[in-house]
Amino acid sequence: MAATLARRGRLLDFMGEHDAAETLYRQALEQYRSLLGARHGETLRNQRALASLLGRSNKLEEAEAMLRDVIGKIPEADRATSPFALETSTELGYVLFLRARFDEAVAVLRPTLVQQRRLFGETYGPTLTTMRALGSALRRATMQMPSWCTVSGCPPSTSSTRRGRSRSSSR
After folding, report:
1. Nearest to 114 by CA among 105, 125, 127
2. What distance in Å separates the CA atoms of residue 5 and residue 79, rounded to the nearest whole number?
3. Phi then psi for 67, rounded to 5 degrees?
4. What is the pLDDT of residues 115-158, one digit of tens each?
5. What is the DSSP string of 14-64?
6. Residue 146 and residue 73: Cα distance in Å, rounded?
C-alpha cells in the first residue's frame, strides 16, 4: 500500500497537483516508517521525494529539516560514497540557496561536488546538477559582499554601504 501511495504521489507531482501529491507522500511516509522503520532505504527515498516537493512548493523550512533528517539517518560511512546521500546533499544545498543562506549552501555543495567528481566523473548528471547549484551559490555569496571588499580583505564588521562614500546621480 505504501508503494502505491508513493507512486500515485509521484504521478500527481509530475502532473503539477502538488497539494494532492504532498498528501499521498505523507501517507506513504507514515506507512513506510511503521512497516519498514525510519532508516530503511524506501522510507528515506520517500522522505526525500516529499522534501523535494516541499522545496518546489516553497515550504523551504520543512524541506530543509526533512533533508537534514534524511542525511542524518544515512550511515556515516555511506554519506561520502552513496549516490543517494550525495544527491540528497545537493538537494539540501539547493534548499539553502533558495532560503538565501548562500554560505551554508556553498559549505554543503562544495564537498558534495568533490566527492561526486571523484566517484562518478564530470559528466555524471547529478555532478552537473551540483556544479550548477554550487556556481549559483558562489555567485550569490559573492554578491552579498560590498563591491569595495575583496574576498580576503573585507573586515567582518563592515556594512554593505561604506560611510563617507558619496553617491552621485547623473540626470
Report:
1. 127
2. 28
3. -65, -40
4. 999 999 999 999 999 999 999 999 998 876 555 444 444 444 43
5. HTT-HHHHHHHHHHHHHHHHHHH-TTSHHHHHHHHHHHHHHHHTT-HHHHH
6. 39
Q: Which of 80, 103, 91, 11 is nearest to 47 (CA)?
A: 91
Alpha-carbon span 24 to 26, nearest angstrom: 5
Question: To 10 degrees, what angle do helices 41-56 and 18-36 make?
Answer: 160
Kindly tell me the burial class for residue 9, based on how many C-beta atoms sit within 10 Å of its own C-beta (0-12, 13-18, 19 or more).
Answer: buried
What does 83-119 look like in DSSP terms, one character per residue?
Answer: HHHHHHHHHHHHHHHHTT-HHHHHHHHHHHHHHHHHH
Examine the pLDDT at 163 and tell me if it is beyond 50. no
pLDDT higher than 50, residue 41:
yes
For 42, counting Cβ atoms within 10 Å of its Cβ (0-12 exposed, 13-18 middle, 19+ buried), the class is: middle
